[in-house]
Specification:
Part of a binding-protein-dependent transport system for aliphatic sulfonates. Putative binding protein. Residues 34-250 form the Solute-binding protein family 3/N-terminal domain. Residues 1-25 form the signal peptide. The protein has 316 residues and is an alpha/beta fold. It has helices at 2-19, 44-51, 53-59, 73-81, 94-100, 146-157, 172-180, 193-201, 223-228, 230-249, 251-262, 266-274, 285-300, and strands spanning 24-25, 31-39, 63-69, 87-90, 105-111, 119-122, 138-141, 166-169, 186-189, 204-208, 218-222, 280-281. It contains 13 helices and 12 strands. Strands 1, 2, 3, 4, 5, 11 and 12 form a 7-stranded mixed sheet that branches. A 5-stranded mixed sheet has the order 8-7-9-6-10, with helices on both faces.
Length: 316
């Protein structure tokens, strides 16, 4: 009797656990799987989210899309590491920090280069007319970001070193305030912060990223999820490509979509979208080489604690 009672209780408990499972029930009583996607407002996934086409595509596969917003790439990568999301988009440097911290992820695709919107800004009428003039100046940028890499490569191109400037580590928003108040001499940043500073402050773009950085987007996935859901990852990338094609061919509608989301004026958004191409590239040797150079530079500067081989986490 005791064994029968124990078994009966086990059946009841198991039934309760199943009924309380986090799976999502569809209208026909079946269950749906979920793909949890991390995005940032200033990135290609916000376009896909707003258009809503991925949800339509995955519904037939029995998948539901759960969107999770992040303010910055490092936080998104940490969520991937903590198994809080399955897929996301970030810039070119957070994956390098994640790999150096042994995070379980794969880079499954890359975005197109957007070097034109990344650069070094100086104030209108500034005495800084060339890269050489940055010597001894206060230059702001986000530490460990694509802008950090850009300023290092730009300085080295004219024989200067990192120690020749006074670095001021600030997020784009705080950097803009310091720049406007004259607390810094130059600001290294990316669009639409670059375009907004140019249009609303009359700042001059000393150099853009051409020849220094490609400043690509990267699409990353939790390693286990990527292994078990190749087909779903492929569908997501296909829909990103389709939404990118729409964005490239509908600048007017894109500007009106993004301006209120990012909370930046339409003129600045228009400048930003006109000097970039949205899209998806497969991982290739050139992209691997670009990332390896960033990783090697950050290791040389003691920004990451160990030397890494980026190819180990790039799915080609």
């Amino acid at each position: 009797m005791t064994k029968k009672l124990a078994f009966f209780l086990l059946v009841i408990i198991t039934g309760l656990m199943i009924s309380c499972s986090p799976q999502n029930s569809s209208t026909d009583g079946s269950t749906e799987d979920v793909i949890r996607i991390g995005y940032q407002k200033n990135g290609p996934l916000i376009i896909l989210k707003t258009l809503g086409t991925l949800e339509e595509r995955l519904e037939s596969e029995g998948y539901k899309v759960e969107w999770n917003e992040f303010q910055a790439g490092p936080a998104l990568v940490e969520a991937l590491n903590a198994d809080s999301i399955d897929f996301g988009r970030t810039g070119n440097t957070p994956p390098i920090f994640a790999q150096a911290a042994n995070a379980p992820f794969l880079t499954v695709a890359a975005g197109k280069s957007k070097f034109e919107g990344s650069g070094i800004l100086v104030a209108e009428g500034s005495s800084i007319l060339s890269l050489e003039d940055l010597k001894g100046k206060k230059v702001s940028f986000s530490k460990g970001s694509s802008s950090h890499y850009l300023i290092v490569k730009a300085l080295e191109s004219v024989g200067l070193t990192y120690s020749d400037i006074t670095p001021v580590y600030l997020s784009p928003g705080d950097a803009r305030i310091a720049f406007e108040q004259g607390q810094t001499d130059a600001m290294v940043v990316w669009d639409p912060f670059t375009s907004s500073t140019q249009i609303n402050m009359g700042a001059k773009l000393l150099i853009d990223g051409e020849g220094y950085t490609t400043d690509r987007d990267f699409f990353i996935a939790n390693k286990e999820f990527a292994k078990e859901n190749h087909e779903i990852i492929d569908i997501v990338l296909e829909e990103i490509e389709k939404s990118s094609d729409w964005a490239n061919n509908n600048h007017g509608e894109l500007v009106k979509m993004l301006a209120p989301i990012i909370d930046i004026d339409e003129a600045s958004i228009e400048m930003a979208v006109k000097r970039r191409v949205y899209g998806v590239d497969s991982i290739n040797d050139e992209i691997i080489k670009e990332q390896q150079e960033i990783a090697d530079t950050f290791y040389r500067l003691d920004i990451i604690p160990k030397k890494i081989n980026v190819k180990e986490v790039m799915d080609d």
